[in-house]
Amino acid sequence: MFRTLARRLVSGALTLFLVTVLVFALIQLSPGTPLAEAADSAGLHRPSPEAIAELERIYHLDQPLHRQYLLWLGDLARGDLGRSFHDRRPVASKITERLGITLTLNGLALAVMVLTAVPLGAGAAWKPGSRLDRWAGVATYLLYAMPAFWAALLLQIVFAVKLDWLPLAGLSSDGASRLGPGEALLDSAAHLVLPVVCLAYGGLAYLSRFVRAALLDRAGAETALAARARGLSALAVLWRHGFRQAAIPMLTLAGFLLPALVSGSVIVETVFAIPGLGMLFVEAAFQRDLPVLLGLTLLSGTATLAGIVAADLLYTLADPRIRRG
Amino acid sequence: MARAARLPRNARAGSAILAALLLVAVLAPLLATDRPWLARGGRGLVSPALASFFGAREAAADRDLKPLVRAPVRHHPNRIDLDAVLQPPGRGHWMGTDVLGRDLAARVLHGARVSLAVGLLAALFALAVGVPLGAWAGYRGGLADAVVARCVETVLCFPALLLVLVVLSAASGWLHRLSDVVRIALVLGVTGWVPVTRYLRAEFLKLRESDMVTAARALGGGHLRIVVRHILPSALAPVLVTAAFAVGAAIGTEAALSFLGLGVRPPTATWGGLLSEAREHIDRAWWLALWPGVALFLAVLGCNLLGEGLRDHLDPRARRR
């Protein structure tokens, strides 16, 4: 087991190295004169000489390439992601002040996704080919092809404009500070409904299909049949032989859902005017604020990698065949 | 024989949708134009719409023509009409008009051109990188495979949209001198090659061990010959599958970029751009948000259906489920 774990850790570390190299290569795409040139040809946002000098200092452009990379890594290790071109503030603090909102949004979306997809997948696996199975398959498939920003606009039109049940955008109503704590909570909850739905629906198709396949795989196995023969109810079999074993492969999905959620946050936060990391990213893209863009890219890259590796490690630990092997 | 070769229903539905969209994209200047298809002029019957489709410029004499047959959508996509601002769908404008009085139907039809061009071009770039890389990793195995696997995992760690946005806003000089469509397609290739490589690698790994390859090797075939003459033709179908998915993914991402305002620049009509404009009038003009989205949804759905259908067709195990 330790060999498997060690091997995964080593390959993970290798990927982490490549992740930093990739972000470093993105820096090389732009700084100094090429940056000024790019801005020139686009006819927009010409960076000031100070901004270029700042870039040269941050990325140690006076050094040879391999030393540039090492110095940059050293800065990263000290939590120094450089300063924003736009307002000169440290990138790290710009990110941390907005992190909470995005984490809340994504945590809620993930919870909604799992709480919908698991019953849906289980219901579909209950009787393969049943009406529920077919309709759930078609519905989630159609949702999967629906771009998040279109879904967001349609939801806004139906629930905010026509029905006026939910707020259109933002995180709180005007004058929310005058509300009592209970009302304020209700107010933010109402603001979060549409964004969370938009973020969650896309993964439904993927997750519910996965749950269905995993359950069919397990529930159809001989152990499940034997359990039924011993007189266990179908529900108990589904729980003991289905879910508990299907939970292991579901771990590996986590690593692949995370990047989709981050991409989704960029879109959803823009449509609903939520000041989280996604919106910060779009603002930075418009301002060609490279330190912020690269800081966020590096952050989401390492977070996803950590998720993938952790899921693989847990998978190894949870699977008795590998654990004892 | 013909029955056995019949594609599954989802693949047929997908290809029908895509064929229709392709037709619309190519013929958009004919389908949506303010110039008549057929008109009577001083020198008999003429077709100003066809003439402009083939590049002729509008002549002053055209104004005296008596139109006989008009295009199904009688408006130019960029013609501003301030007397017909934000009109709901109706007789004159069957998808309504936008805030400048431009006809939405004409703009949606023309938007198909950008979406499909970016989608096809991006898929081409993704295949150009992904096929050789996947073939190399799968055929050689060992170190080559390990290197490619690390690279694939690296790119997978990044959300595709983020990587594309960074490259678009950081990249320098020459990239900005390209046209919008080529530039975006090229940048989409940065992440597009990954799924192609993964799928091709698995396919080559499987085919490498096949009797056909052993036989070719026994007959003295070199590596290049084996790959190009024996494995690649068998792997052609998987290439088509990944191409279909790549087109769909590229269309979706291009729309997202244009929606954010970082894609194809106005006044060119794109589905993502139209939806972005719709945001500003969401409280007054629902139709602006509906129709471009329907078009985008159909395009992505068509690609997914085709890709999935082809894959089911190739892998009977997956078909039964």
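Residues 247 and 290 of chain B are 22 Å apart (CA to CA).
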